[in-house]
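Lecture notes, unit on protein representations.

Consider one protein chain, 293 amino acids long.
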Amino acid sequence: MKKRDIAVLLTCHNRKAKTIGSLASLFQATIPQEYQLDFYLTDDGSTDGTGDAVEELFPQVRVIRGDGNLFWAGGMSLAWETAMQEKSYDAYLLLNDDVELYPDFFMNLLEAEAYSLKETGKRGIYSGATVDKNGEVTYGGSKVNNYLLIVRLNMLAPTKQPQVCDITNANVLWVSKEVVDKIGIFDYHFTHGIADYDYSFHAKKKKIPLFLAPGICGECTDDHQKNWKSNQYTLKERIAYLKSPKGLAYDEYLYYIGKHFPLFLPYSFMMLWIKTLFPTIWDRTKKNKKIPL
């Protein structure tokens, strides 16, 4: 049987222990013999020796050096581009470097692919659910309820069967070659976050199947804390956070909303500025659950 070539893609920055732990769990996973995995890791300017440690402990991983300005989406895109230059892969497996993978995670993804082929006749995108130490689902796939002016996301709980979803997180994400041939890789407008959400919606518009894989693929803590700065910070600091790729990513977020939910754009614009100029109001309204997101 001809082997299927899979490119495994990661990016990292200054969290050596987590990166090494994630890779260790990856190499302990069950991978069927008919799959050949190649590994690409972007080390985006780490100063804690992450890249060097990976090269020493996992010589089969190709480490690509960044300058520290790539952030998550940029680092993943560089690893993706590098892999595509090497050979034509049958699929690309995107992993966050803080995910502790379960031994059967790869088999869960293969179940999603088999289901996609059976139900749609197409290969697509399959996300693997992760949980935290308490067993709460942290990442995976979500359904979108679009009320034109208001958009809500509902995260799916994994079951024994793959589930259709609208959004896939790239903490554990299988992207088939057929998908890349049709829509390419991440949109270069995105520096850090949002890129995986945007990619999901782009795929859905092109009628590419998106599924949440069955079961749980690993452990990963939800590190998305309160995404605005309180009034304990100066206005200058709050505006800097508004513009920051690791903050509210103002330009990128509005680009994303305008691209996929144009009627939601006025609310999004107002939301970003209320968070920044009047954080006390935002604290109160969120606490009282008067607004979504």
